[in-house]
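Human: Cast an eye over this sequence-structure pair and say how the chain folds.
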Amino acid sequence: MSTLRDQVSNDMKAAMKAKETKKRDALRLLLSAFKQIEVDERKELTDEDVSKIIQKQVKQRQDSAAQFKEAGRDDLLEKEESEIAFFMVYMPAQFDDAELEAELKSIVEKVGASSMKDMGKVMGVASKTLAGKADGKRINECVKKLLV
């Protein structure tokens, strides 16, 4: 069993004892996502798998939050944002824009990309190298900026 999953489980138990209902509910949703993957794929999750699941859950909530904000549903927006905050604790530190650009420049040089035609090559390497450290959308935008 992964240590990251154990940490989530222990934090949920602590939230239950402290009667932090929002945190408890958010972490329960996360643990149920872990369990769903374990049952569906019949495998024990590694820390990398757990991290990918957390990243996916954060992305789903960010998308929902954007829609709720657009619709003026502040009550639901607040719930999504609080869940994102609870989940981000377990995510690896995200690159800031300068770090992301520096990493992508080295990838562009390594791949030998010179124009937008080479974007697929760069994105393939970048998405594997920077997994969990930067959002795919941010990577895409930065690569476009570098290859113009």
